[in-house]
Amino acid sequence: MDENNPDPAKRTRSMLGVPILINMHPDGSRWQGEVYNAEDGETYAANIKLVSPDVLKIEGCGFFGMICGGEDWTRVPLPKGSPSDQAVCSSLPK
Predict the structure, then answer these.
(1) d(CA 17, CA 26)
(2) Are 43 and 36 in contact (CB under 8 A)?
(3) Which of 26, 32, 74, 29 is nearest to 52 (CA)?
(4) Separation CA 59–CA 34 (nearest Å)
(5) What is the tally of helices (H) and strands (E) in the chain?
(6) CA–CA separation, 84 and 81 (whole Å)
(7) pLDDT in tens, 81-94
(8) pLDDT at 66
(9) How far apart are CA 7 and CA 44, in angstroms?
(10) In a domain, 2, yes or no
(11) What's the pLDDT score for residue 83?
């Protein structure tokens, strides 16, 4: 649940399907935009970069760029017979 959302009307919604990477746009070898952190209900300036086919590095800053952090997100292997990422994404509404 999105319990820490600043909007009380959204605190009972499931986080499943909620966009967390917001307004991302290319900037050289990375993408810049914002990231929503459901743990504290805040949105931070962020950038992402694919560092290998299965690892996405995300970095974000808060408190006027004074406090920054990041982590690597590793792709979860798909079970045998599952549709590819591209097949799933291409079927989503635009």
Answers:
(1) 23
(2) yes
(3) 74
(4) 10
(5) 1, 5
(6) 9
(7) 888 877 878 887 76
(8) 75
(9) 16
(10) no
(11) 85
Q: Residue 52 pairs with which residues in a beta bridge?
A: 55
Domain contains 61: yes
Sequence-distant (≥ 6) Cβ neighbours of residue 89 within 8 angstroms = none
The Cα 33–Cα 45 span in angstroms is 6
Question: Is 3 part of a structural domain of the chain?
Answer: no
Residue 1 lies in a domain: no
How many structural domains is the chain composed of? Answer: 1
**For the chain, how many residues are written?**
94
**In which residue ranges of the chain is pLDDT below 70?**
64-65, 94
> d(Cα 18, Cα 78) in Å, to the nearest integer?
21
Q: What is the pLDDT of residue 61?
A: 82
Q: What is the DSSP string of 53-87?
A: TTEEEEEEEETTTTEEEEEEEEPPPPPTTPPPHHH
Q: Which domain holds residue 50?
A: 8-90
